[in-house]
TrEMBL record:
Residues noted as binding Mg(2+) in the record, renumbered to the chain: E78, D106
EC primary class: hydrolase
Keywords assigned by UniProt, alphabetized: Cytoplasm, Hydrolase, Magnesium, Manganese, Metal-binding, Nucleotide metabolism, Nucleotide-binding
Domain of life: Eukaryota
Annotated protein name in UniProt: Inosine triphosphate pyrophosphatase
Catalytic activity: ITP + H2O = IMP + diphosphate + H(+); XTP + H2O = XMP + diphosphate + H(+); dITP + H2O = dIMP + diphosphate + H(+); N(6)-hydroxy-dATP + H2O = N(6)-hydroxy-dAMP + diphosphate + H(+)
Enzyme Commission number(s) of this protein: 3.6.1.66
GO MF entry, a single one: nucleoside triphosphate diphosphatase activity
Organism field: Selaginella moellendorffii
PANTHER family documented for this protein: INOSINE TRIPHOSPHATE PYROPHOSPHATASE, INOSINE TRIPHOSPHATE PYROPHOSPHATASE/HAM1 PROTEIN
Location within or outside the cell: Cytoplasm
Family: Belongs to the HAM1 NTPase family.
Amino acids binding ITP: 50-55, 90, 106-107, 181-184, 204, 209-210
Assembly and binders: Homodimer.
């Protein structure tokens, strides 16, 4: 059995100006705790599961080999509900399907004038098109929107998924740029003159909802010691 215990977070920042002895002690405790990071034993590497090739491409670009994972293209059901719940349920389904640890994500585009709708399922964009998305906001002055990405990590079937949320603020504009990835042409992030679609890939990946969520996933992998071992004490 895998035992995962949460280590208390140790914040030494406030000690710096106060007392050098406490700083030294603080650093020592922090290092000692890093040595006893909780070990999470898996029987195979975490598999990132998605049916979307473009998503997969971005996840690979952002993560590189910073965490050990493999990928699998499987069409997961389009679920409805609140973003975190959709993402968790996807993880439960995927963990059962592949009988192992999985990482999945669900992405939404949310309009503030519509209190977070349309959220998104892939059929929605296919039927409405970019013009339809703009038309949805025609009756409103407020064109602001946000892109939301929720990753879920499930260590195996029956494990409660952990979620990691990334969010990027922006606005909805008439489509500009290549139309090869979802609603990228109509989403212009705040602070940029370009839509996601007009940006070079590495620029989108610096500020995107997906990047922000993956930074948290990466931190989580640093906090625990994920080891792949195929013996009886595995997940
Ligand atoms: O960065 C993005 N930039 C533009 N469009 C995006 C992005 N990320 C997802 N999308 C689109 C794809 C799909 O039309 C819809 C729902 O996304 P979502 O259900 O999460 O993806 P999906 O069904 O294509 O793949 P999956 O198998 O991982 O569920 O939003
Ligand atoms: Mg989907």
């Amino acid at each position: 059995m895998t035992s995962i215990s949460l280590l208390p977070k140790f914040d030494i920042s406030q000690n710096y100006l106060l007392n050098p002895i406490r700083v030294t002690l603080g650093l020592w405790v922090k290092e000692a705790m890093a040595l006893v990071r909780a070990e999470v034993v898996l029987k195979k590497p975490v598999t990132f599961v998605t049916g979307n090739a473009k998503k997969l491409e971005e996840v690979k670009m952002i993560l590189g080999n910073s965490i050990p994972f493999s990928t699998l293209r499987v069409d997961l059901p389009e679920l409805q509900g609140e973003p975190e719940e959709i993402s968790k349920e996807k993880a439960r389904i995927a963990a059962k399907q592949i009988d192992g640890a999985v990482l999945v994500e669900d992405t939404c585009l949310c309009f503030n004038a519509l209190h977070g709708l349309p959220g998104f399922e892939k059929w929605f964009l296919q039927k409405l098109g970019h013009e339809g998305l703009n038309n949805m906001l025609a009756a409103y002055k407020d064109k602001s929107a946000y892109a939301l990405c929720v990753f879920s990590l499930a260590l195996g079937p029956g494990f409660e998924p952990t979620t990691f949320v990334g969010r990027t603020e922006g606005k909805i504009v008439p489509a500009r740029g290549p139309a090869d990835f979802g609603w990228d042409p109509v989403f212009q992030p705040d602070g940029s003159d370009f839509t996601y679609a007009e940006m070079p890939k590495d620029e989108k990946n610096k500020i995107s909802h997906r990047r922000r969520a993956l930074d948290k996933v990466r931190d989580h992998f640093r906090e625990y010691d994920f080891v792949v071992r195929n013996d009886d004490s595995q997940v």
